[in-house]
Design brief:
Blueprint (H helix, E strand, L loop, with lengths): L2 H62 L56 E11 L7 E6 L6 E5 L7 H4 L3 E5 L5 E3 L2 E3 L2 E2 L1 E4 L2 E4 L13 E2 L16 H5 L3 E3 L5 E3 L2 E5 L3 E2 L12
Antiparallel strand pairs: 1-2, 1-4, 2-3, 4-7, 5-6, 8-9, 10-13, 11-12, 12-13, 13-14
């Protein structure tokens, strides 16, 4: 027999041996799984029996200590002693609460027209004026507008009005803007001015006005918001129609802003310019 034939014969023999080993391994694996499953079933049975015994002992102890047993539906519990059957728990009938009558929903209030009547314009007096500690272009004002205490107002008039001209001055104040922080200090109102490229002038109320007096505009009902909602852009809508006329009077759509029985609010020299 040649070397090649012997190699082929050995290879065939090895192949048969491997197949026999595979068959034997598969048989051993099956036998092992069967044995393991049997052991698990036996252990589960022992555990189940132990649990049932523990439950029975627990019930006996509870009965002995006077604890009532409530039967579980579709299940019976065996007790070695013969305890008294547990009395069914009386269920009280549920009290039916009277249904609450649903109140009809109130219609939302009608939206007020967006005009000068929504602005809380008042006469006010500047009681103190200082430079803002953290802003070169701002004054820090304390202004009496007829309330319990003066309001703090940050005003960008430094480049337009000397500080001496603001002390103890009577002005027209917009009081229902949402308070906003300006360089760390909350500003609670705005001093109304005539403004143009020529300059800025603080508006002048009529003689004899007192802090807190309301400013009106004929033909428009004065019903200001407590605080204007910035999202509704009320002031931004009204502002383009605020201006001075040829007689220097502050106007809304050509109608002068007035303090009843006192007169009009005016600018010093700036005619036909925006008011803001």
């Amino acid at each position: 027999m040649s070397s090649i034939d012997r190699i082929k014969q050995n290879a065939e023999s090895a192949k048969q041996t491997i197949q026999e080993l595979k068959n034997e391994l598969s048989f051993l694996n099956t036998e092992y799984n069967t044995l393991l499953a049997k052991q698990l079933r036996e252990e589960n049975a022992k555990l189940f029996a132990a649990v049932e015994e523990a439950k029975t002992r627990l019930v006996q102890l509870e009965v002995k200590n006077g604890i009532k047993q409530i039967p579980v539906p579709n299940q019976t519990t065996k007790v070695s002693e013969d305890p008294q059957p547990a009395k069914p728990v009386e269920q009280k009938p549920k009290e039916t609460k009277p249904k609450k009558e649903k109140k009809p929903k109130e219609a939302p209030p009608a939206e007020l027209p967006v005009d000068i009547g929504r602005l809380d314009l008042r006469i006010a007096k500047i009681e103190d004026v200082q430079r803002h500690p953290d802003a070169d272009t701002l004054y820090l004002l304390k202004i009496n507008c007829g309330e319990d205490k003066p309001r703090t107002v940050c005003s960008g008039l430094v480049k337009h009005v000397p500080i001496e001209e603001l002390r103890d001055r009577v002005v027209m104040l917009l009081c229902n803007l949402k308070p906003v922080k300006m360089r760390g200090i909350t500003s609670e109102a705005m001093v109304m001015c005539a403004s143009s490229e020529k300059g800025v002038e603080v508006l002048v109320p009529p003689e004899g006005c007192s802090p807190g007096e309301a400013v009106h505009c004929e033909g428009y009902t004065r019903q200001p918001d407590p605080v204007m909602n910035p999202k509704k852009k009320i002031f931004e809508t009204v502002a383009p129609d605020l201006h001075t006329d040829g007689a220097l009077r502050a106007c809304y759509k050509g109608v002068p802003l007035m303090v009843p029985e006192k007169g009009a609010v005016v600018a010093k020299t700036l005619a036909n310019v925006p008011v803001k």
